[in-house]
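pasting for ref
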Amino acid sequence: MTATADALVVFGITGDLARTKTLPALYDLTEQGILTCPVIGVGRRPLRNDELLEHARSAIAAAKGERLDRRVLETFLSRLSYVGGDERADGLYSRLRTALRRSTLPVFYLAVPPATFLDTSEELARAGLLENARLVVEKPFGTDLVSARELNRRLTALVPEERLYRIDHFLGKEPVQDIMYLRFSNALFEPVWSREHVDSIQVTMAEDFGVEGRGAFYDAVGALRDVVQNHLLQVLALVTMEPPAGDDDAVSRHRLDVFRSMPSVDPAHAVRGQYHGYQGIDGVQPGSDTETFVALRFEIESWRWAGVPILVRAGKALPVTATEIVVRLQRVPELRFGSHRLACPGSDDVVFRIGRDAGVTIGLFAKTPGKEESREVSLDVSFLDELGRPPGPYERLLTDALHGDTTLFPRWEVIEETWRIVQPLLDDPPHVEAYRPGSWGPRRAAGLARRHGGWRVPQ
């Protein structure tokens, strides 16, 4: 059994990610009795301990509101301390080593910009702090295939793969994990989950807001790097992988099998868009061709999925905010008996909603009352209504890192394959087409799904 960590060190403890995600998650883990070890925050600001505690108290109170339990908060704060200053300055890592003198298995969580991952890790290694430690880094892991390989080469020279945890917070979302349970815990789905019955698969991640306040960051990234190469491909793997069996590595192996069976994307089957007004946002470079929308078609060359188109789209300034996966079943033939004609005007969809209104919808056709025709009806389940409030993604992922469970952390081979899949679109990107905010992207994107019933509009 993997040992539980005896200290958690959070770099970037005063940053936005820690304020909005990490600190509230650590409070929740304290409430659940999971987090019992010391937490050491590291930041560039020269704060006193009491100043950090006030920062954490304010962040957690803002996140929890009326659900805040003061006793839990004070318990967490009693375990929190701070080591601050310029990470390149003499003494910071020496002070950190002193703070960890009683720890034999620390977890270092780098909630810092990706450009600083390597420098911070090298400093930790020089200070002798990585010898028995787990190292947790945020996405994105590299900016393309070449940079990801170089980053991995240098990081794994400092800490071995089995102790390197790459966070993709989408995999920590409870509705994402529900996909696997829905598929393999219900006899309803698996018999039709193949090319014999599935017409197409759609993945949509839509956001009804733009990039205001994040222009400089987003302009260097774009939709493909921001959400497709990581979040959406990881979700797609859970929808399409084979049933896992065997050891604890079974899920990771089968996700990898999906990516290895996917050819690299053909830029001719991709559409890139940019919404009107994007170039007027602070931080966006004049004449930028960064995409705020991307739609593309993938294939999976496996016995189960050969010939089934995989359609993915993601974008900013769209009509709604929603993330969903649609498994569209093949249309049934028209049926005639006597003077009756039974025709279904569309396809049955199985929809996994993993956004704000998480749940599953199964589309069916039923008889229209008083008429000899069918109409679409839905069987709909809201996970919040039926199952209660789920844990947040950082609760789950930090718990797993503390316990040494790597199931939900993409390993290097997976990261490498996802970059390989999208690399042609980075090397030879199609021209960016303008679209109106509040629309579904460039008109040409609709053509990718036209032969398969069109894109489903999230409800």
